[in-house]
Design goal:
It is a single chain. Helix 7 links the parallel strand 2 and strand 3. About 45% of the residues are buried. The chain is elongated. By secondary structure, it is of the alpha/beta class. It has an eight-stranded mixed beta sheet with strand order 3-2-4-1-5-6-7-8, with helices on both faces. About 50% of the residues lie in helices and about 10% in strands.
């Protein structure tokens, strides 16, 4: 019997992880494109069918129209391969995503820069806060966390665990405490200690939309008593497995909290990545980062070209090393 421990599997490179995370969308395209691209040349009927395939992949009507127009313009009455369609799709997706791909920028004049993190419960808000705190700390920023989702004990406990992991102080009160009170105390402490960044976790109970609206409005109101410009960023965390419902989430949280930035989580193979393209076209909000797993490092700035190639099922140069 061999007692030698098995070697751990090498960790996938970032692009490989991203491609695996978007496999649901790219596999759906593969499965359906094959049926559309028969031996016949590209004609109006084929374009209609291609458009339907793209819409079914959650890419949205506008993107489907874009790809259709691009193919009709350059390839009409020619025979197409799947690779031809993928190349056009990747190019058009990248064109839409380029303007919204932006790193999260801190206001150096704000002490602290206050980031209010919002989203439906279960999207990964608290984990995202932990990963952001880790990145800020790694870049030499002092970070404080506020557990203003006082509705759930698990959210408070999880934030404390992240605080321990990244070396950030967590301001928390008991379950059922006033979320605005937690936020106010946290900003006071962050100012006193000269913290660079304050990340505030919030509840996301959309079934009580009126209550949630009042709660978030109160948090913003009390923050402004201490800093008229706070919060400096209102970050919405979206779960990439949500599909079309993600659009209504963006609409609702824009209405409730004035969302300024997006982070997308759970790009893990069950993701419906096409929805991010539809959201980018409709709302034009900056997308700061995407997460492909639970690990503290499974979180990267949003690269529109990598995302476009992965969603189209196309490769990239040096794929093996990526």
């Amino acid at each position: 019997m061999n007692d030698t421990p098995a070697s751990p599997e090498p960790k996938k490179g970032w692009f490989a992880q991203l491609k695996a995370g978007l496999s649901r969308t790219s596999d759906s395209l593969t499965e359906n494109l094959g049926g559309v691209l028969t031996k016949r040349k590209l004609d109006a009927e084929t374009l209609d069918e291609l458009e339907e395939v793209l819409i079914k992949a959650d890419l949205g009507v506008t993107m489907a129209d874009r790809v259709r127009e691009a193919l009709a313009h350059g390839c009409y009455d020619k025979r197409l391969t799947e690779d031809d369609v993928r190349a056009v799709l990747a190019e058009e997706v990248a064109r839409v995503l380029e303007p919204v791909a932006a790193p999260l920028m801190l206001d150096e004049n704000a002490k602290p820069h206050v980031i209010l993190v919002v989203g439906v419960n279960g999207t990964g808000k608290t984990t995202t806060i932990g990963k952001l705190a880790h990145q800020f700390a790694r870049n030499g920023k002092s970070v404080m966390l506020a557990a203003a989702d006082t509705f759930r004990a698990a959210a408070i406990d999880q934030l404390k665990i992240w605080g321990d992991r990244v070396g950030a102080e967590v301001v928390a009160q008991n379950v059922g405490s006033d979320p605005a009170g937690v936020a106010y105390e946290a900003l006071e402490r962050a100012k006193t200690h000269g913290a660079d960044v304050l990340l505030i976790d919030t509840a996301g109970r959309l079934q009580n939309k009126g209550d949630l609206m009042a709660e978030l409005a109160k948090i913003v109101r009390v923050l402004k008593k201490l800093d008229a410009n706070a919060p400096h960023t209102v970050m919405l965390v979206l779960d990439a497995t949500t599909g079309q419902n993600a659009i209504s989430q963006v609409q609702t949280f824009q209405e409730i909290a004035g969302v300024t930035n997006l982070v997308v989580t759970k790009l893990d193979g069950t993701a419906r990545g096409g929805i991010l393209v539809a959201i980018a076209e409709r709302f034009g909000l900056p997308i700061n980062a995407i997460g492909v797993g639970e690990g503290i490092e499974d979180f990267e700035p949003f690269d529109p070209h990598d995302f476009a190639r992965a969603i189209a099922g196309a490769g990239r140069e040096n794929d093996a090393a990526a």
